[in-house]
Amino acid sequence: PEIAMRIALFSDVYKPVINGVVNHVSLLKKYFEQWGEQVWLFVPGQNPTEEDEPNVIRLPGIPIADTGYHLSVTIDQRARNILKMVDIIHVHHPFISGAFGLTLSRRYNIPLVFTNHTRYDLYVREYLPLVPDAVSETALQAYFSIFSQRCAALIAPSPSIAEVMRGWGVQGKIVVIPNGVELERYRKVHGGPTRAELGIPEDAVVGLYLGRISGEKSIDRLIRIYAILIHEEPRIHLLLVGGGPDLEDCRELAHELGLDGRVTFTGAVPYEQTPGYLKLGDYFVSASVTEVHPLTFIEAAAAGLPLVGIDSPGVSDIIRHGETGLIAQDNDLSLGLCILHMVRDPELRARLAAAAQADSNRFAAHTTAREVLRLYESLTR
């Protein structure tokens, strides 16, 4: 048999925190292990929890507020011994674990791979609004220019994000490999809540959003658009599945706009229960333009929902307009018209839904994990 490849994955955060990056990293680890490779996952901070799966190594760190993220400061002897013998280091965040991975890759002369999961250019604006754009852009470009030169390869989850990364001054080899989804979870769904249990009328045509309820996802914009659309179409309903820092503000906004009974919030839902919620929707809708490779769109497609999104990197790589969903221009009128079109035309919904479900096959997690493994092999020959 072939000698197992020894792989070190680095992430800024891991379970019990749930987000797209955590899900992606845990899938890579799962498939690599199934295929007989040796995998270690290094995560700053967070004391080892009882539920930790094997080979998750928590590095001592300082918590950053209550985000679940930590700044890592040291690396112990056990971690050092493992890192000396790995074949590849794969980092999933550029700053904390990325800087760490970079240092170790240079110290032990191990090829470094980086997957870009976030529009850092937009998040910098969202979370550091007081920093002038020019400063944040320049700092970002300077960092990525140096960081990328030291990577053996960089993975972009979609072609349009590869373009965005070039704009950040990324140099070197960019490979497009989508982040995968375990499609089976969404194809065969058992259990989950009913519409009645959530107070959604049976005859409603439900637009469903799944994800974080936070500023960069533009949930407030979606709610304002629905507030106008209810005057045009009485059956319209919006179901927002997820928790996040803006949940209470959004609830208040919906109430102020007279949307009680028209917008339903579930609050945070455990990841393993999300397929049961997706089946309550007639179509999936998001107003976010800060995505990289939005897994929730793929999960919704796998569950058989047609998609509505705004023309932006990531989203436009997933939705095929008029075929698997509708892509709106980045204005409220265009998005509102796409939603109305979807609500009023059940035949269109059925046609797009069937195509979306079939198209989601290209994002099967085992396929995309295999591509990542092939990339490692090409870098370590």
Describe what you observe in this structure.
By secondary structure, the chain is α/β, with parallel strands linked by helices. It has two domains: 6-180 and 364-380, Glycogen Phosphorylase B (Rossmann fold); 184-362, 3-Layer(aba) Sandwich (Rossmann fold), CATH 3.40.50.2000. Helix content is 41%, strand content 17%. Strand 8, helix 6 (159-167) and strand 9 form a beta-alpha-beta unit. Helix 1 (20-34) crosses helix 15.
Structural class: alpha/beta
Strand order within the widest beta sheet: 3-2-1-6-7-8-9
Name of the CATH first level of the largest domain: Alpha Beta
Sheet with most strands: 7 strands, parallel
**For this structure, what is the CATH homologous superfamily of the largest domain?**
Glycogen Phosphorylase B
Q: In terms of per-residue confidence, which ranges show pLDDT below 50 for 5 or more consecutive residues?
A: none
Number of domains: 2
Shape: elongated
